[in-house]
């Protein structure tokens, strides 16, 4: 997609349409009418996107449902980190449920009507921004626990946690308002229906605004915050040299690298599309290459919903214990002999007493710092 609008759109409407999905692009340069055919881009899209969307839907749904079940059923007392992780999981689930709609739209066309067009597009935008915001909140939470454990502990009350959660969802909803206003169902001359924003006429500037908004709020600011937060955490780890320092540092680096890997290519492609719309760049070959890049980088960004449960949940020793507790409940007869809920409970109590000694990552370090005298 060329904006924050619905992904993988089909249109033949020309310059006002989404560049990344047009069969043709039209423009006037020096009074010469240019036509850029994109049949090969369309052929690639019809094969690549349905396969990739289906893969992301399956992996994202399974991973996030599992994490959601662990958080809801097995975590005895949801603290700040668990509350953010729970909301991140909900955000991911909202995102993956939109993928079947886009897959059907790619394979066939938009058959769900105008109302669902607005609803699905709005959910898509809300889930993208809320997911990124909750990742930022989790990074901030680790910063408060490790770098400012005692002075700012009073700020991390349940009431203030849920107030911040409501604020995140409200901001994501406010950001999605232009999506709701501009998105609509379109029919091309061949009778193919599509769901995407209409930025023609006075709305043309909104396309650029929404792209730059995603570049800033959805990538540059969160990435800068994560680099600052984990750099400070790294300084504390080096200074205190707790047991498990190496793994905790690797975990911090992995979180930043994963965010950059998922979102930088897509945001760079969006920025280049903005230059194309501003006619800073214009060449048929460049436009076609950006179309290919959009399909690939957007799909790479979509993978965030599959890997965030692993990075932020099951990479923690404590969450692996919760997962075992869930398996004890669901599959009591299929686990190893002697593995019971009682033994798990004893193991969890023991591990909670030796968190500093058995630290497996940032979550364990944060627990130790918060509990230190």
TrEMBL record:
Keyword Disulfide bond among UniProt keywords: yes
Protein localization: Cell membrane; Early endosome; Recycling endosome
Transmembrane spans: 51-72, 84-111, 123-140, 161-183, 216-240, 252-276, 296-314
Entry annotated with the keyword Ion transport: no
Taxonomy, superkingdom: Eukaryota
Domain (G-protein coupled receptors family 1 profile): residue spans on this chain: 63-312
Record GO terms (molecular function): C-C chemokine binding; C-C chemokine receptor activity
Keywords in alphabetical order: Cell membrane, Disulfide bond, Endosome, G-protein coupled receptor, Glycoprotein, Inflammatory response, Membrane, Phosphoprotein, Receptor, Transducer, Transmembrane, Transmembrane helix
Gene Ontology CC: one annotated term: recycling endosome
One Pfam short name: 7tm_1
PANTHER family, sorted: ATYPICAL CHEMOKINE RECEPTOR 2 (PTHR10489:SF942), CELL ADHESION MOLECULE (PTHR10489)
GO annotation, biological process: calcium-mediated signaling; cell chemotaxis; immune response; inflammatory response; positive regulation of cytosolic calcium ion concentration
Protein name: Atypical chemokine receptor 2
């Amino acid at each position: 997609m060329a904006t924050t609008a619905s992904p993988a759109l089909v249109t033949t409407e020309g310059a006002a349409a989404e560049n990344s999905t047009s069969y043709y692009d039209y423009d006037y340069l020096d009074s010469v009418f240019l036509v850029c055919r994109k049949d090969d881009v369309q052929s690639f899209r019809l094969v690549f996107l349905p396969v990739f969307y289906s893969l992301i839907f399956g992996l994202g749904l399974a991973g996030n449902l599992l994490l959601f079940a662990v958080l809801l059923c097995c975590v005895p007392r949801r603290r700040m980190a668990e509350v953010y992780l729970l909301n991140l999981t909900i955000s991911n689930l909202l995102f993956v449920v939109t993928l079947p709609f886009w897959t059907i739209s790619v394979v066939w066309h938009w058959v769900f009507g105008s109302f669902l067009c607005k609803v699905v597009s709005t959910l898509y935008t809300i889930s993208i921004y809320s997911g990124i915001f909750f990742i930022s909140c989790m990074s901030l939470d680790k910063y408060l626990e490790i770098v400012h454990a005692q002075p700012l502990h009073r700020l991390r009350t349940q009431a203030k946690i849920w107030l911040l959660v409501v604020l995140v969802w409200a901001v994501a909803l406010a950001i999605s308002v232009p999506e709701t206003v501009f998105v609509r169902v379109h029919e091309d001359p061949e009778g193919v229906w599509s769901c995407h924003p209409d930025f023609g006429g006075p709305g043309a500037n909104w396309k650029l605004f929404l792209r730059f908004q995603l570049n800033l709020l959805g990538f540059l600011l969160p990435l800068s915050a994560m680099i600052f937060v984990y750099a400070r955490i790294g300084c504390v780890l080096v200074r205190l040299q707790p047991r498990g320092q190496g793994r905790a540092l690797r975990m911090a680096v992995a979180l930043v690298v994963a965010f950059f890997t998922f979102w930088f290519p897509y945001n760079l492609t969006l920025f280049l599309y903005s230059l194309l719309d501003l006619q800073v760049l214009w060449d048929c070959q460049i436009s076609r290459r950006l179309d290919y890049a959009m399909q690939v980088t957007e799909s790479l960004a979509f993978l965030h919903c599959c890997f965030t449960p692993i990075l932020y949940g099951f990479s923690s020793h404590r969450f692996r214990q919760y997962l075992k507790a869930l398996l004890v409940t669901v599959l009591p007869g299929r686990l190893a002999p002697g593995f019971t809920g009682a033994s798990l409970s004893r193991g969890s109590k023991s591990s909670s007493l030796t968190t500093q000694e058995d630290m497996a990552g940032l979550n364990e370090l944060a627990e130790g710092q918060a509990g230190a005298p």
